Amino acid sequence: MPLTFDEFQERLRAAESRRELLWSEGRPRYVLLSQLFERSDLDRLFATADAIQRLDFTEEGAAFLRSTLRRKRVVNLFAQPSTRTCESFVAAAEKLGASARVLSDVDATSLAKGESVEDTLRTLACFYDALVVRHPDESFAARAAWASAASDRPIPVISAGSGRSEHPSQALLDLYTFHHAWRGRLEGRRIVLVGDIGRNRAARSLALLLPRFDRVSLDIACHPDHRPEPEFLEALEEGGIEPSFHASIEDALSESVDAIYVTRLQQEWDTDGGPLGTAEAFVLRPELRAKVRPDCLVLHPLPRVNELPDDWADHPGFLIWSQVRNGVWVRAALLATVFGVDAVIRSQAGDGP
Ligand code: NCD
């Protein structure tokens, strides 16, 4: 008996049943949540991203990469604005020789005529081999995955941002950026998340992966209205992380901080349409450089408005453009993993399977 969507959602929420639901033939098929990735999966994914980056450096390596997903077709259905995520998924697919198409005008699809997510998925699965999807509705990607699993032509579904809650591929590229900057040593780090953590899906997905590393401590500087909900904090606590909250960015910063992850106020969810930008208390003002070490990392998922001024651009730990570049390697590694060509890529790069 196929699962109802409610049953699917219930299993998705439970850590014990999640993997069985989203994994198939030893690899992730439905990338809906960052928590899907265990520590060993992260290590393998990062090794694949490194291998892709190395191979892409030479003519011969790049030609090999282009042979790995030749004849695969990926469709990017983006119902919310995007520059980096959408374009890096396209670049990632092309690096592996897959074709990539973007459907960003959702009003020009039959969804606007009232077609169900299920029928849309089944239709796209007739033409494409994987769906990458960004949608304001939190359950859209999950519904597409559920419909795919129940169909006779299941294709992988990767969330590229689901409502306010999850952005798994961004969390993976952010962790990969930490992994490189700290030479694989994430254990014992102190990370400060700043801004609209209740609604910033990138910061949320990243936080939910931090329990994979021992003794990480988390500080959250946010306005009381932007505190994450109790269920989110419970999930962190289950992973052994109890964040300390701060009423301003200044209160959260000190010499012991290893990384600051700044986020934009997510005003697209507000109805009152005030001027764009974050309140002073959550802006990483230039004078705050004196409170942190020069090697303290500064990340932001972007886009930024006023919360991370360019005065930080020459701070040694300023990594926002590395994050953008890493997005291509990590998303290519994710596609390679989902399609099961990651081991051959690692071995071609000389890493062993
Ligand atoms: C984020 C998103 O869309 O959730 N952007 C991104 O994908 N890099 C963060 C944001 O929009 O603030």
Task: Report what the structure shows.
The two termini are 37 Å apart. The protein has helices spanning 5-13, 15-22, 39-56, 59-68, 84-95, 117-127, 140-150, 168-181, 201-207, 230-238, 249-252, 320-338, 342-348; strands at 23-24, 27-28, 30-31, 73-78, 99-103, 130-135, 157-162, 190-194, 217-221, 244-246, 259-262, 297-299. With 353 residues, the chain is an alpha/beta fold. It is 39% helix and 14% strand. The chain binds N-carbamoyl-L-aspartate. Residues 84-85, 161, 167, 170, 200-202, 264, 301-303 line the site of N-carbamoyl-L-aspartate.
Q: Tally the beta strands.
A: 12
Strand/helix succession: HHEEEHHEHEHEHEHEHEHEHEEHH
Sheet with most strands: strand arrangement: 3-7-6-4-5
Q: What proportion of the residues form beta strands (DSSP E)?
A: 5-15%
Summed up, the helix count is 13
- Parts with pLDDT < 50 across at least 5 consecutive residues: none
Task: Please tell me what the overall shape is.
Answer: globular
- Estimate the mean pLDDT confidence: 96
Q: What is the chains' assembly state?
A: single chain
Supply Rg.
20 Å
Give the cofactors and ligands: N-carbamoyl-L-aspartate
* Distance N to C terminus: 37 Å
Q: Main β-sheet, in a few words? A: 5 strands, parallel
Structural class: alpha/beta
Helix content: 25-40%
